Amino acid sequence: MAPPTNFEVQIDDVKQVGSHKKGTMMASNVVADLVVVLRTLPTVEAVEALGQKIIEGVKALDPNEVMTMLPTDAGCEISSSDASVKIIVTTIPANLKKLDPDMHLPQKMMQASLAAIRHARWSEENASHSSIKVLIRILKFLRSRFVGLEPLNPWIIDLLAHGAIMQNPSRQPLAINVAFKRCLALLSAGLFLPRSVGIVDPCEGGHVRVHTSLTLEQQDQVAYTAQTLLRVLSHGGFKKILGFEGDASIATEMSVWEGVVVTPSEKAYEPPPPQEDKPEGSDRAEGEADEMETQEETS
After folding, report:
1. How many of the other CB atoms lie within 10 Å of CB of 137?
2. Which of 98, 157, 166, 235 has the highest CB neighbour number within 10 Å of its CB?
3. Cα–Cα distance measured from residue 231 to residue 38, given in angstroms and rounded to the nearest whole number
């Protein structure tokens, strides 16, 4: 993309990413994501200049359009009366080592933006089947409905849905209902628990497992929530799981299905007790006291 003349921000590339690119956008979150890769180092001022330039370009086509720009940690979000676009700014990989945390956008944000481009490319090549996209939207809905599944980020959901549908002996896509139950069964069995094989990130080197981005408490939370939902599903409670009936209390409260009582699973992870801060010099004093006791015993 060629930048306008007299424009200090040099654009290397623009990529569409996220749910809009993958065809998995939810009606509750109608926001398109664009990653803008700069040749220059992305300062806050450069991001604001880029946002203003986009607004000027749109208004040149439609002077009556009312648009707003809201700065974010990763770039900016431009909104009109009926649409929103999240502009995610990053730079070319060669520039990442030149970043100054006091002047430029956070390095972690820009690395995540480059990863989003890789994710979109992988999904286009491997997860374009309609069944995968439908299952991704179902899992996203469950994530918004049940607090226990909130730790699952969009990339984890994409890989989980792809694996549940495509990774089977026949290598043929499974039916949605079978794959949906398989997702809950995998999570219930501890797919994302410590020491589990999990799912290796196909876009990262070094065999990185995607669930390592979750805390131990979140890994446990996903597992015991999925266990409860799987038992409810096995006794015919799919309407309450999918939101056609009732609320999300089936994941946290006891329910009865044709005489069968389903009790929610309890958490297994207990965080270690906080270590008390000892006063400075207390270790030395304890050591001297122990030494004195030893001398008294030997004397």
Report:
1. 18
2. 157
3. 50
Q: Which range has highest mean pLDDT (243-247, 271-275, 283-287)?
A: 243-247
Torsion angle, alpha carbons of 210, 212, 217, 220, to 10:
50
Identity of the residue numbered 278:
K
> Which range, of 62-71, 217-226, 289-298, averages the lowest pLDDT?
289-298
Q: What is the pTM of this model?
A: 0.84
pLDDT for position 60: 86
